[in-house]
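Two folds, back to back.
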Amino acid sequence: MNKKVTKLVIIFAGILAIVGCVSMFILSPIGQKTGNIEMPDADGSTAEILSGITVEQKFQNITENITEVAVVFDRAYYLYDEANMIIELADGNNVLAKDSYSADNIPGSHRTYLKPNAPINGYVGKELTIRIYTDSTAGTGLSLMTTNKGGSYKFGDQKVNGSICFSVIGE
C-alpha cells in the first residue's frame, strides 16, 4: 500500500475508535444522568392530617424512570387505632402510583417511600402531584414535615407557602 492509503486507513480507524468510545459512554450506565428531586431540609410541619384533609404538593418533574417518592411524616399527635395514610403520585387525576401505610408503622422524621411496581417514565417536564390523606374516620396522629422555602402546597382547602419535605428518585 502506498503511504496515502495507509495514512487514510489509520485516520479512519482512529475516528471509528473515538466514535465507538463516545457511543459506549453515552449508552452505558456511567453516562446516564440522574434527575432526582432532592429532599429539602425541614423547618416546620403541617397540622395533623384529619379525615377529609388532603395534602397536595405539585412539582415540575425532572426525573425519568421514577422508582421512588419519599415523604417525611412527623409524629406530633396521639395515634388513633387503625389509622392508615395514603400516598399517591398523580398526573392530574391519573394516579401513577398509590399505597397505604399503617400510621403505627410510619416513623417520625424519617422517609416513607412510595415505590411503584415498575419505573414510571414519560413524565419529564410535566407537572405531577403528590397527594397524602387518611382513609380512617379519625385523625391519623401524623403531620408532614415542611420547609418554608420555595413554592406552595395545599392543606385541605388552604394554600400554604413552602413545600412538604419530599424527594423523587429515579434516573
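---
second:
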Amino acid sequence: MYLFWHAFFAGLLALLIYRLAKPNPAWPFLFAVTFFGVFPDIDHLLSWSPDLLTKLFPRYLTEGLSFSLRTSVYPCYLHLWLWPLILIATAIVKKGKPRKYILAAAAGWMLHLALDGVTVLL
C-alpha cells in the first residue's frame, strides 16, 4: 500500500503541475516528480523484512490511508525534511534547464514526507 499510495498521489501532483504550469513541462519533469514521490522509501530497505512485501500494494481501496503524525523515522534518513530543502537551495543557486528537475525532485520528495506525516526537521 505504501508504494501504491505514494506513486498515486505523486502522479496526481505531477498531473496537477502539468495542468497548471504554462508552458506545460516535459514528460521527464512529470516522471521526476512521480519518481521522487516514491524514492524516499528506498531507505526502508535498510530494515527490510519479508512481511513488508505485503504492504507495497493495498488489498482494499482505503487500506493505508490514515491521518496521523509520525515523528520517528530512524534509521530512514531519506525521510528528513533536510533533503528536499537542500534540493530547493540547490535549485536557487543552479541556473538553466536542470533547475526544473531539481525542483521536480524537491516537490515529489516534499509530497512524500507530507503523506508520511513526518514532522522531524533535522
